[in-house]
Structures are given as structure tokens and as C-alpha cells.
Amino acid sequence: MPQQYFFILLLLFFFNSCQKQAGEGGTSAIIGRVKALDLRYDGATDSWEVDTTYYLSEERVYIIYGDDEVYSDDFRTDPNGYYRFQWLRKGKYKIFAYSDDTTGSIPSGSVPKYISVEIVKNKTEYNITDLEVLRIPK
């Protein structure tokens, strides 16, 4: 009887260890673009307004796998603002890039802008909405 319990416990351990977490090693990809929103300050309304928009080249984009607290990989956008994270497994991901802080309360002057993505199917490209970052004129 104890051998049966040992065998069942061993099987449970084996199946739990086979579950793969979010990250590299899969067959899916996340594709998107980074769009800059150039702002201008309107003194009459005491607010920021979008002046122009364009896609950013050479902008660094980051990905966080699953529930990690730090980024797992990064990518620089191409001349048309595109980025691509490939070879991903099923799971949850966060994509982010840095945006200028319009409140003036962040010492670094920048804040991350996040988009959450969940890969639910293998061999799939997930085209996500534009990641919009704010740019304040210097």
C-alpha cells in the first residue's frame, strides 16, 4: 500500500513540474508599435494637449513574463516604430515603454506605460494596440 501512495505522489510531482510558465521557448509572438504623442501646454486651460503624433524609431520596449517584478527582455523599435517579442509560450505578459511625466511629481521625469497581453494559443501572432507614450517639449 505505501508503494501505491509513493507512485501517486511521484506522478503528481511529475505532472506539476511539466507545466511551463510564461516566457521564451514557445511558438507565439507579440507585435506592436510605439506611438509618441507630442504635447503642448495650454496656459488658458492649464492642461496638456496633444500637438502631433508619430511612431518612434529606436525606442526601447520591455516585456515582463508572468508575475515577474522586473523586465525579462527588451527590444528597440524599427524605423516605423514596430517591435516584436517572439518565441513566447502561453501565459500572461506585460509590455511597457517609458513616457514623460506630465505631473512633475516623479524625480526621474518618466513613468512606464503598460499593456497587458495573454497568449492563449500556440503558433499565433498577437498584434496589440499602439503603446502610446507622452513627450513633453524640452
Word description of this protein:
This protein has 138 residues and is mostly beta strands. The protein has one domain (22-135): Immunoglobulins (Immunoglobulin-like), CATH 2.60.40.10. The chain contains one helix and nine strands, in the order H-E-E-E-E-E-E-E-E-E. The strands form two sheets. Strands 1, 2, 5, 8 and 9 form a five-stranded mixed beta sheet that branches. Strand 3 and strand 4 form a beta hairpin. The longest helix is centred in the first third of the chain and has 16 residues, at 2-17.
What distinguishing features does this structure have?
1 helix; 4-stranded antiparallel β-sheet; Immunoglobulin-like; mainly beta; elongated; 5-stranded mixed β-sheet; 9 strands; 138 residues; single chain
Quick structural summary:
The protein is mostly beta strands and 138 residues long. Helices cover 12% and strands 53% of the residues. The strands form two sheets. Strands 1, 2, 5, 8 and 9 form a five-stranded mixed sheet that branches. A four-stranded antiparallel sheet has the order 4-3-6-7, with no helix packed on it.
Helix content: 10-25%
In one word, what is the shape? Answer: elongated
The mean pLDDT is 89
The succession of helices and strands, N to C, reads: HEEEEEEEEE
Report the uncertain regions: none
> In the residues, how many domains can be counted?
1
Distance between the termini: 75 Å
Structural class: mainly beta
What order do the helices and strands come in, and which of them pair?
Elements: H1 2-17, E1 24-42, E2 47-55, E3 60-65, E4 73-76, E5 82-88, E6 91-100, E7 110-119, E8 125-127, E9 131-135
Parallel strand pairs: 1-8, 1-9
Antiparallel strand pairs: 1-2, 1-5, 3-4, 3-6, 6-7
